[in-house]
Design a protein that fits this description.
single chain, 236 residues, mainly alpha, 2 strands
Length: 236
């Protein structure tokens, strides 16, 4: 249910954003994107550090350093080989042509990455699946509503189609938690969230136009911690 509310919030916000799109000058659109990128990068960094830095007997230390690095490197190599970014763009272009829609690739990909990649999407969906607790997803829905509204004023209707990605991605996680919750461990969820937040930082850098990063090709990094902890469970 939480995922349905989340997707609905994105659709409504996108429809509202379309009403304002034509009235926003290009210079203001660029300023909005830079500001959103900066905010996204800073918030994601904060979320990452909350899990990365731990206090042990009064001293600061870090956790899962090597696993996070390996996840990012291996995941990116896999993503580049299969070219997820290119696949998403080709899919978007086909939809544009088939239904005679305005350009939606950039909005669809940007929206999908922002709404789906991150600790809140993962943790909220797991909580919803395990106990029916929608608190995190409801909070995420509010944030996504604001984000979708702003993104649509710049990228257009493509952002609204990202609601489908949210339905599929978060829905599968929720169903997985319902039927396989016993296999999910706190360390696994923590590392997945850390990797996801690093991808959000990369997305923020894209929005600020400091460097073009194919964040979609980094998505397999989210699966590496799952594989690691599943394999670890067989040897412990």
């Amino acid at each position: 249910m939480g995922t349905l509310i989340n997707a609905g919030a994105i659709v409504v916000a996108s429809l509202i954003g379309l009403l304002f799109k034509k009235g926003i000058p290009e210079a203001l659109q660029r300023a909005i994107m830079f500001t959103m990128g900066l905010a996204l990068a800073v918030m994601a960094l904060g979320w990452f550090l909350v899990d990365f830095i731990v206090v042990d007997q009064g001293t600061l230390s870090t956790q899962y350093d090597l696993l996070v690095i390996i996840s990012l490197v291996v995941g990116t190599v896999i993503g580049e080989i299969i070219d997820i970014d290119g696949g998403l763009r080709r899919f978007s272009l086909k939809v544009e042509k088939k239904y005679h829609l305005p350009p939606l690739a950039k909005g669809f990909i940007s929206g999908t990455l922002i709404f789906c990649v991150g600790a809140m999407a993962i943790l909220g969906s797991i909580q919803d699946g395990l106990s029916g607790d929608m608190t995190t997803l409801l909070f995420k829905s509010v944030l996504d509503f604001i984000t979708a509204l702003m993104l649509t004023t710049v990228f257009g209707i493509g952002v609204m189609f990202a609601a489908l990605s949210v339905l599929i991605y978060q829905g599968l996680i929720t169903l997985g938690a319902m039927f396989a919750g016993q296999f999910l461990t706190i360390p696994m969820i923590t590392v997945i969230g850390m990797v996801g937040n690093l991808l959000l930082i990369a997305m923020g850098i894209n929005f600020m136009q400091l460097k073009t990063i194919k964040v979609a090709n980094m998505l397999p990094a989210l699966l590496i911690p799952v594989i690691y902890f599943v394999l670890l469970s067989f040897f412990t």
